[in-house]
Amino acid sequence: MKQLTVRGFGDELSQAIRRLANRDGTSLNRAAVKLMRRGAGLEDGQGPDTVGSSLDDLIGTWSRTEEDEMERALRHFETIDEAAWE
Asked: How confident is the model at residue 48 (pLDDT cuts 50, 70, 90)?
């Protein structure tokens, strides 16, 4: 296995690696490699034709107003145009 030295981790990234390591009960090295593989799109099941977790950061971030606005914008997609199927 190859070895690589990485410098310049900021506090935020360092804390994220520590949280992942604690959550998974693994080493800091494994947690860092896991995050790098995820960031590079190399995790199992990921690829250009795979739905991944790229939108996870948006989950729970909309305000009620933004949610209502999106619902209004998408409402017309709920209507089926019967003539289009004839």
From this structure: low
Task: State the Cα–Cα distance between residues 46 and 56, nearest whole angstrom.
Answer: 14
At residue 40, the 3 state secondary structure works out as coil
Q: 17, exposed or middle or buried, with CB in 10 Å at 0-12, 13-18, 19+? A: buried
Nearest Cα residue to 41 out of 4, 16, 49: 49
State the chain's maximal CA–CA distance in angstroms: 64
CA 34/CA 16 separation, integer angstroms: 12
The CA distance from 82 to 86, in Å, is 7
Q: What is the pTM of this model?
A: 0.48
